[in-house]
Amino acid sequence: MALEKITQVTGRGVFIPGDDIDTDRIIPARFMKCVTFDGLGEFAFADARLHDKEAGRIHPLDDPRFAGATILLSGSNFGCGSSREHAPQSLYRFGHRAIIAESFAEIFFGNSTTLGVPCVKLSQQDIAGLAAIIESDPEAMITIDLTENKVTVADVDFSAEITIPGHAREALTTGRWDSIADLVDGLDEVKKRVTAIPYLAS
Amino acid sequence: MAIGKPKVRRINVDGKLAPGVYAKDVILHIIRHLGVNGGIGYAYEYGGSTFDNFTQEERMTVCNMAIEGGARVGYVNPDETTFEYLRGRPYAPKGADWDAAVARWKATASDADAVYDDIVNFKAEEILPTVTWGITPAQAVFIDEAIPDPKNLPEKDRATAIEAIEHMKVTSGTPVDGLKIDVAFLGSCTNGRLSDLQEVAKHLKLQKGRKVAPHVKAIVVPGSQGVAAIAEKMGIAEIFREAGFEWRGAGCSMCLGMNPDKLVGDQLCASSSNRNFKGRQGSPTGRTMLMSPLMVAAAALTGTVTDARKVFGIQ
Ligand code: SF4
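YS: structure for the whole thing
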């Protein structure tokens, strides 16, 4: 199945600071009683946003300056905890098309990749640099380039090298990021493999 | 494919755990030291004499929480303990199929001279009953320790520690022993197994007549309907009920608060589950402290987080 080849993501950024942001924070469990993922977007970071509102602060996702941002920035171990696919789904439906962080929790990383949302790593300094740029100019256009391996910002002297595991880069840039579609495509090979695995063959 | 081959970290725990110290304490201790992101890019292979001597269910408790340590998978090499656990279970192969399966499983075990990407060693004797005090499973201390001061933590851990202290409504320097709880939850995929319920019931029985503290809501949720049925039959359910615990239907329950079992407001819950994230147990301001099942029971009886070894006279 031919999917979009994702080689570049360009858009405005929004920074949610913090390390170890878990998937319960990204989408609290009580919003998961849905049959489809539609409508999950509005509940992204629901409790954190409400908490900020009650405390008289504005959560970055509610800050009008960053409305419509498509690139999410955060700290290390982003997406840890519960494996819920609802987490990347809610961010995707909120409008995020790529995530930049110091590091990612594995399952979240995999779930995002299979949605066609690149998760790329930058150093702490580079993330701080990018965050400063979007804080002073929320309209700054960030480009993540998966073939050139870098992040740049239009009209700003900023360029940093990203890290993304080879298998994920390949999957995204060749349009093979939906692993279920990949399995369906390779059904003959899958069947052959099944006969070689004793506990599946019998 | 979207999945790459992980590196392997061998985590050895050697020696004998002291009485009243459990598999849950082992994994909380491991995560405390390796961090909730330490396992990123790794599979965790647990081994050493402590794991060799563990029952299969104890191994499962530790493997279950590899995710909390950041690893995508955690395993203990299959051995006779594993095979004995599987033999005769529903869906286990039988007869010649069984022998073939065991041979196959044995072939998957790591060789003695296997090379690892990383090796970490722990001593069982150094592990004490452990509880989490914060909002990640790595924010854990022994029961005789106090809430840490973020100033004394490595720089990378400070911001999360400050956030945790605010959320948990605790102060640095306060001993964890003595923190007042509102709810006790015994269950989850980490610690809702038959052996967990048996171990706690054994100690409760010796405390004849002792009941859950009046201000505490204590619930026991077996990990599966199979476990629930056996526990009923063995009289375990009755021991819990008599001690004032609610004996509930099997499931995830208050581990994640998707059914009506939820914390209310900023209730503090002593929980045998595996996740203490903000809002995890159904209330955005709810507070969770992770610990072993027996520590949960001790907290339920006394109404405070406390050393189960003292409550149950374990030496
Ligand atoms: S919700 Fe909790 S008990 Fe249920 S599977 Fe997830 S971690 Fe385990």
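YS: worth flagging: The mean pLDDT of chain A is 94.
IM: good catch. Also Residues 124-136 of chain A form the longest helix (13 residues).
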